[in-house]
Design a protein that fits this description.
two-stranded antiparallel sheet, mainly alpha, 461 residues
């Protein structure tokens, strides 16, 4: 027992050391992270705090323009890079003029300041979860430090969920810590720190992934024979299917309030992948009922998310297509946007593939992930595959060349390497051993009868 507690303490120390190292690195860039959309969320949060719409807009503009002065000048289009030669005063004047213009042209209501036309701002009005999350941080620490601390909490929470996911799936302690470190080092950590809804949506997505593993896994071995290099933590061992189902439902409900389109895609991707998995297990004459139940749960949540967004009148798929093709609704809507939208899809993905060839970090990581899926058996792998598919679907819904160098829309794809590659640190699961078990001695002789073949535990669903 003391040895087990010592190992658990070592795991906790490792987790804390990774978190402290990440925190220290993030202190080098407390500001300078704001994108053009950040001011929308800041003004929404300030309005929720009780400030007037005008004052909320003024403070959000001040933060955005100040952040732009500290931003790197590297060409990453989705971040808030100041125009060449634009001072902070010129930035404030430009945004104030924009607010005055749209106020005169009908944008006179809502929680966000009128930085654009009302139809475009409705996109951010439909994401109340992230501004609500920011309220206590901004109220206590101010805008700059509040946003930084909120991002840190979001990033660390997502990394811990990745660690717990791997441990709950039976991975070793070193694999779990590697997953945590990968999550923070990859663009998943970068996106989590930025003052946008994508990071909180991603953290909630990792909670959903953890719930899926808890819902589908076999109970972890406690005899140390699995080759994973240690028992899961006490929480991971104790949590069961009910906890998993609660994490799935609760995570997707909260994602609905933060970024409902990503919640819809994640739920749909999980339902699809788990349904295929259940069919494959049934064909192999293996237990498939738990997987089918999980697929049904995700499918039901998919329907609920879509119906909820529709009933609330939130922007849907065609609104997103019109937004792209009309430059944020500043031009007349197209009667049928889909032909032009699919042309944009082709343009974007061809450019994206060329980008991956010239900078093949993601392809290499995805290749390692495929290797892990071929060499390892783990309940986490199909779930990680579904999360990656949700990232691709989200990017496909926004084929904007301005996002070519960014990661935030496709960020769920990076969950696949963060969850799959650490499994390569563990020994592969072995099948039935061909060596017969030795007969046991009973008293002065040996037990007679059949000699069973030593078996590994059956593969988890």
């Amino acid at each position: 027992m003391p040895n087990i507690r010592k190992k658990q303490h070592l795991g906790l120390i490792g987790m804390l050391l990774i978190a402290v190292a990440f925190t220290g690195l993030q202190l080098t860039a407390v500001t300078g992270r704001a994108s053009p959309d950040a001011k929308n969320y800041v003004s929404y949060a300030l309005s929720l705090s009780g400030e007037s719409r005008e004052e909320a807009g003024r403070r959000a503009i001040a933060y955005s323009c100040d952040s732009g002065q500290h931003a790197s000048l590297s060409p990453v289009p989705w971040t808030n890079r100041k125009a060449v030669g634009e001072s902070e005063e010129q930035c404030v004047r430009r945004l104030n003029d924009s607010v005055a213009y749209w106020s005169r042209h009908g944008n006179t209501s809502g929680m966000t300041a009128p930085f654009a036309n009302q139809r475009f701002m409705a996109i951010f009005e439909a994401r109340p979860g992230y501004p609500l999350f920011l309220v206590p941080f901004i109220a206590v620490f101010g805008i700059t430090w509040g946003l930084w601390l909120a991002g840190l909490v979001i990033a660390l929470a997502g990394s811990v969920c990745v660690l717990l996911t791997l441990r709950a799936a039976g991975a070793s302690r070193r694999a779990g810590l590697a997953g945590q470190a990968l999550y923070l080092a990859l663009p998943t950590g970068t996106v989590a720190m930025n003052p946008l809804s994508d990071g909180l949506s991603l953290a909630l997505g990792t909670a959903v992934v953890l719930g899926c593993v808890l819902l589908l896994r076999d109970r972890p071995r406690t005899d140390g024979a699995s080759g994973t290099g240690g028992r899961p933590g006490s929480w991971a061992a104790a949590a069961g299917p009910r906890t998993g189902a609660a994490l799935i439902a609760g995570g997707l409900v909260l994602m609905f309030l933060v970024r409902y389109s990503q919640a819809l895609l994640l739920a749909a991707a999980l339902a699809g992948v788990l349904l295929v998995r259940a069919g494959w297990l049934r064909r192999k004459r293996r237990q498939f009922t738990p997987v089918l139940r999980a697929a049904a749960l995700c499918a039901g949540l998919t329907v609920c998310i879509y119906a909820g967004a529709h009933l609330l009148g939130w922007p849907m798929g065609e609104d997103s297509a019109q937004d792209l093709l009309t430059h944020h609704y500043q031009r007349p809507d197209l009667p049928n946007p889909w032909p032009e939208f699919f042309v944009q899809e082709g343009v974007f993905w061809s450019a994206w593939l060329r980008r991956q060839i010239t900078s093949p970090v993601l392809p290499v990581l995805l290749a390692l992930s495929v290797w892990a899926m071929l060499k390892r058996r783990s309940v986490v792998l199909p779930i990680a595959l579904a999360a990656g598919a949700a990232g691709l679907l989200n990017q496909a819904g926004h084929p904007n060349l301005g996002q070519l160098y960014g990661y935030r829309l496709i960020v769920f794809l990076w969950l696949l390497p963060a969850l799959a590659i650490p499994l390569l640190l563990d020994r592969p699961a072995r099948g039935a051993s061909p060596v017969p078990a030795q007969p046991e001695k009973v008293g002065g002789g040996q037990r007679d009868g059949r000699v069973g073949v030593a078996q590994q535990p059956r593969e988890g669903a």
